[in-house]
Amino acid sequence: MGGLFLVVGVLETPALIRSYHALRTTSKRARMSFMKYLSNGNDIINITTFVECALGVLAAGAGVASSFQYWITGDPIYDSIASVIMATSVVAGSSLLLTKNTRALVGETLPVEFVEYLIFTLEEDDIVNSVHDVKTEVLGLDTVRFKAEIEFNAEAITRKIKNLYNIPSPESAQLLEQMRGLGCEEGAEDWVMRNNAMYQTALSSELQRIEDILKRHLAEAHFKNFYIDLELW
């Protein structure tokens, strides 16, 4: 019997190692610890593989150890101990997988650590002043909703439009020349309207760029479908 347990353990180990490395990589991308990702991550295939293989290796180890002790001592108590270990591990693993499947069906939010990382990443951008009223929802295994209000840095956007990163500069001199050449109220109105239109276009582009940043990080966390709603704060 001990030989059978040994064969089971050997067969389960390669899949256990592969799933472990895959989960380590994914948990790092999601900015979560390995154990936290096991309970809250969305890579259900590798999580299920890891849990099932871990249970198989643990049960095989308990079986080999109990068979060896029984062979040495002849005391059947070791078989009972191994049975308790196997049953306990199966119950624990099944509870974990059942909890994850239930969450996937009813929906849950993104882990707090990952949301905080996303907010930090956005606020590190020169164009973004702050992020407010963040709401998230995970639907199924690979779909996520992300809603937030973004306070943009109007000065930074304007500098980006006009390339006014240094003053004096050729760009600032050109801007001054344009303003001097307005000449009349109609010209001033036209200049304001054109610049407001440029700002509106630039703001739309920045919203799309921020959305792309979010999609990239969510994709790294194994999400495939994104519903992102960004509003001005």
Number of strands: 3
Helix percentage = 55-70%
Strand content: 5-15%
Main sheet attributes: strand count, strand direction, barrel closure: 3 strands, mixed
* Overall 3D shape: rod-shaped
Give the structure's gist in a few sentences:
The protein is of the alpha+beta class. The chain is built from eight helices and three strands.
Overview of this structure, please?
This protein is an alpha+beta fold. The chain is built from 8 helices and 3 strands; from the N terminus they run αααααββαααβ. Strand 1 (128-139) and strand 2 (143-152) form a beta hairpin. The chain starts with a helix and ends with a strand. The longest helix has 36 residues, at 185-220. It is 70% helix and 13% strand. The protein is rod-shaped and about 105 Å long. The chain has helices at residues 2-29, 34-40, 44-73, 77-106, 112-123, 154-162, 170-180, 185-220; strands spanning 128-139, 143-152, 225-232. It has a 3-stranded mixed sheet with strand order 1-2-3.
